[in-house]
Amino acid sequence: MESMTFVLFGATGDLAKRKIFPALYNLYLEGKLPSTFSVIGLGRRELSHETFQSNVERSIMEFSRRQATPSPELTSFLSAFRYHPLDVTRPEDYRTLLQLVQERESELGIPDNRMFYLSVAPDLFDLIASNIKASGLGSTRGWKRLVIEKPFGHDLASARELNEKLSKSFEEDEVYRIDHYLGKTMVQNLETFVLANPVIQAVWNKEHIANIQITASETVGVEERAGYYDQSGAIRDMIQNHMLQMLMMTAMHQPTQISAATIRAQKKQIMENLRPVPRAEVAKNVVRGQYAAGSIQGKAVPAYLDEPGIEAASRNDTFVAARLWIDDEKWKGVPFYIRTGKRLAAKSTRIVVEFKNPTEHLYAHRNEQTSPNLLVIEINPNEKISFLLNGKNVLNEGVLDEVRMDSQGDKKQLPEAYERLIYDALQGDSTFFAHWNEVELSWQWVQPILDAFAANEVPLHTYEAGSNGPEASERLLKEEGFEWLLDPVPSKSLQMA
Ligand SMILES: NC(=O)C1=CN([C@@H]2O[C@H](COP(=O)(O)OP(=O)(O)OC[C@H]3O[C@@H](n4cnc5c(N)ncnc54)[C@H](OP(=O)(O)O)[C@@H]3O)[C@@H](O)[C@H]2O)C=CC1
Ligand SMILES: O=C1O[C@H](COP(=O)(O)O)[C@@H](O)[C@H](O)[C@H]1O
């Protein structure tokens, strides 16, 4: 990998501490950083290089997935870090930053490959990008890349405006939009599991699949992010990005070969064929909810409206479920259901594929009925794939029973999403970053829902914290004769592998 400078805006912030420094450290231990590299941390506060290095060390001690203890390796890793106080609104601060970046490049004898990572509030993205250009930081003979966090815009118009502004300083292929769900092991695995297995490909279509359910449920509430979340809700926080990205990864068609460009083209096609939900039909296809007080794992928790920092009369959504249709030849007639919410019964991100069941009545003469085959892709907190099949329970007079075949990785050994994504960005591999096309099409799909929510055209159901969300979300599936498969992996079933 080519040597480079990693310029981190927001190096004194929460994300840097919890995710970015630990990710860089683990990449370093695995030999996945260039042999020589420079990291320049930025923030408004005044810090010496030494204090910054100690802060980085503390964050690694606390948050790294590999236990870190003082060692020559850690010392050598930290020696690459420098700090520069910078206010992103002051153009002169970028000029002094450029001097430091160049000094380090010549000290280390490395080319001017520069990665600008914006771990700051999104309203600063365009200003920073234009200052990078104006100051000359972006005029490199090597490569330059811009990594940005979500959210990318607040609605379709603001996302387009932001993209327009960024494109004045960076080309689309230089922009890496992080969606951390695309860094998750099982989401990345979808590409190979679905596209590279002929057995799966053969049944990955409307002939064999009855419905697909994508869930990201959380037990946490709004936490410390009331200011942001009360303006965003589940629709912007999860549906527009993570949930639609998981939908694209699940539904994309097999390209002739796998590359960033072909995967992106397939994902874009899914979004183009995703049936729009006109504003007048939002209430029929989308259910929104807000949590009331309740209890999570035996602990009483307050209602959303009683959380610190939330407006007393807020009509913000903390739960959204929706029914989607992809109008192409592969998926015509197959409903996709998505569902996400805070303060639900379990932390669980999963994709459940329910297959059609033409063998249902095969054992009718014995008053038995087969169950539909299910494929369960667990993404978080477990990472595994299970197949639920019909089997014969030889210990119980051969009656039909569910048989589970599953795979399980050793979670501790797996890199974190941020490790994967930073590594990919350093290599210039944009497969698992959100392309502007995908972001724009996602906002386009979501916009009528935002409008209908804002105009209160969709009922806001309350649900008890610790429940499975509003009962109204059952209706979405009942209309096609299905139900949510919330915990479809039976613990008692026979394990075959
Ligand atoms: N934290 C998380 O878990 C997640 C965060 N994100 C996104 O990551 C980004 C960063 O979030 P997070 O770390 O939580 O935010 P924090 O509020 O913890 O950190 C903000 C950072 O921005 C810096 N900053 C703010 N204003 C300026 C300025 N005018 N000039 C220079 N630096 C400035 C602060 O430095 P200083 O105070 O020293 O000026 C600080 O380092 C956001 O886009 C957020 O949406 C996305 C997913 C998860
Ligand atoms: O991006 C976000 O994701 C988290 C959930 O992420 P996970 O990796 O724990 O599934 C969510 O809590 C947060 O509100 C949202 O901004």
Automatic annotation (TrEMBL):
Active site (UniProt): 242
GO-annotated molecular function: glucose-6-phosphate dehydrogenase activity; NADP binding
Domain called Glucose-6-phosphate dehydrogenase C-terminal: residue spans: 195-484
Cellular-component GO terms for this entry: cytosol
EC assignment: 1.1.1.49
Positions of substrate binding: 180, 184, 218, 237, 342, 347
Reaction equations catalysed: D-glucose 6-phosphate + NADP(+) = 6-phospho-D-glucono-1,5-lactone + NADPH + H(+)
Entry keywords, A to Z: Carbohydrate metabolism, Glucose metabolism, NADP, Oxidoreductase
NADP keyword on record: yes
Catalytic class of the enzyme: oxidoreductase
GO biological process, one term: glucose metabolic process
Boundaries of every Glucose-6-phosphate dehydrogenase NAD-binding domain copy: 7-189
Keyword NADP found: yes
UniProt-listed InterPro entries: G6P_DH, G6P_DH_C, G6P_DH_NAD-bd, NAD(P)-bd_dom_sf
Pathway of action: Carbohydrate degradation; pentose phosphate pathway; D-ribulose 5-phosphate from D-glucose 6-phosphate (oxidative stage): step 1/3
UniProt: NADP(+) binding residues: 10-17, 44, 87-88, 150
NCBIfam families membership: zwf
Function: Catalyzes the oxidation of glucose 6-phosphate to 6-phosphogluconolactone.
Family according to the record: Belongs to the glucose-6-phosphate dehydrogenase family.
Name of the molecule in the record: Glucose-6-phosphate 1-dehydrogenase
Lineage: Bacteria, Bacillati, Bacillota, Bacilli, Bacillales
